[in-house]
Amino acid sequence: MGFKIAVVGATGNVGREMLNILEERGFPADEVVALASRRSQGTEVSYGDRTLKVRALDNYDFSDTDICIMSAGGAVSKDWAPKIGRQGCIVIDNSSAWRYDQDVPLVVPEVNPDAVAGFTRKNIIANPNCSTAQLVVALKPLHDAARIKRVVVATYQSVSGAGKEGMDELFEQTRAVFVADPVTAKKFTKRIAFNVIPHIDVFMEDGSTKEEWKMVAETKKILDPKIKLTATCVRVPVFIGHSEAVNLEFEKPITADEAREILRDAPGCLVVDKHEDGGYISPLESAGEDATYISRIREDPTVENGLNLWVVSDNLRKGAALNTVQIAELLLERGLIQPKKKVA
Predict the structure, then answer these.
(1) Cα angle vertex 166, ends 163, 172, to 5°?
(2) At 285, is the secondary structure helix, strand, or coil?
(3) What is the 3-state secondary structure (H, E, C) of 144-213?
(4) How far apart are CA 270 and CA 50, in angstroms?
(5) Same domain, 64 and 113
(6) CA 41 vs CA 38, 54, 286: distances in Å
(7) How many structural domains does the chain have?
(8) What residues are labeled active site?
(9) In this structure, is residue 107 part of a structural domain?
(10) Residue 14 forms part of a structural domain
């Protein structure tokens, strides 16, 4: 007997990727329903070889649905996730709406799988921010080995993190530059084509941006509240794939060679680290891949027990769609959910 799955936000970049990954990984679903706002009703989306017609979220009954995977933005999730959960459907939400709620587990299956059991309080499980997800996958095995004290991270985040509008803006601005048309900024605060913007999300009172704050709060919740983390988050003119330059300070000694071996054996990690031209991963090569890639592993001589890493991942996959599907798989593996009924 398979499950009935609803994907909310099915017409967006992440929603479409969720449908792709559900099919790719052979998730045991007897029925998959694509949902979005009324204006997208009737739009067609792909699910493997099949085509699904999008239905309106407003009038959908979740009472016979087992799992709802959401990527429709924080406002929609804040309103709808509790309603869906009360109908006995488990919500796995990709927005920031529930990440910091103490009654909602924030889960990366390779890092804190045991936390998933906490979903019963609200029937909601939160997916972390894309930049956090790949970071903690790389940090977890190293933290277990030598205890991380402090993290300094600078991100190089692709425009797909800002949705289809961000991708369209990079394409349109790049074209405008080449044909000498006026370059206009709509989605981003400054021109993104052939530029970098050290500003993602809104500014906080202390001068950091909310994206930077998210990385701090989420790493503490997922991995360890004692870890100190400071981040600078930057938007770069790349379509897909987030990169991070990570500096780590540990409580115990750890060499670059030891870190390399630990990460090679770690779930979700792939080490590509040759000291030669091209012996590392760039975001272009991570696009369409499930792994979190780690390169440029080296000791930092300026601090005691310090390491530097270069961490790259497809933000639409591990940072969003893949992680939500992995959470759904985790629920099945641990026997925490059973199909409500056989779908005809």
Answers:
(1) 140
(2) helix
(3) HHHCEEEEEEEEEECHHHHHHHHHHHHHHHHHHHHHCCCCCCCCCCCCCCCCCECCCCCECCCCCEHHHH
(4) 32
(5) yes
(6) 5, 5, 33
(7) 2
(8) 130, 242
(9) yes
(10) yes
> Any idea how long the chain is?
344
Instruction: Specify the pLDDT at position 1.
Output: 62
- Give the CA distances from residue 175 to residues 162, 166, 189, 239, 315, in Å, rounded to whole numbers and listed in that order: 19, 14, 19, 14, 24
Which residues constitute the domain of residue 265? Answer: 131-158+196-313
Note whether 140 and 57 are same-domain residues.
Answer: no
Alpha carbon separation from 169 to 98, 111, 165, 241, 286 (Å, rounded): 29, 34, 6, 17, 22
| CATH number where 22 lies | 3.40.50.720
Low-confidence ranges of the chain (pLDDT < 70): 1, 341-344
Per-residue pLDDT tens digits for 13-42: 899 999 999 999 999 999 999 999 998 899
Place of tokens 């924080």: 74
User: What pLDDT does 340 receive?
Assistant: 84
β pairing state of 292-300 and 306-313? antiparallel
Residue 233, domain CATH? 3.30.360.10
Task: Note the pLDDT of residue 342.
Answer: 54
Q: Does residue 13 sit in the same domain as residue 142?
A: no
pLDDT of residue 225: 98
21 lies in the same domain as 100: yes
Q: How far apart are the first and last CA of the chain?
A: 11
Domain annotation covers residue 184? no
Alpha carbon separation from 194 to 171, 176, 289, 310, 312 (Å, rounded): 11, 12, 25, 22, 20
Q: Which of 125, 128, 115 is nearest to 67 (CA)?
A: 125
Q: Is residue 163 part of a domain?
A: no
- The string of pLDDT tens digits covering residues 41-93 is 999 999 988 999 999 999 899 999 999 999 998 999 999 999 999 999 999 99
Distance CA(338)–CA(271), nearest Å, equals 37
Q: Which two tokens stand for residue 54?
A: 């999008």
CA distance 211 to 200: 6
Amino acid at 208: S
* SS3 (DSSP) at 109: coil
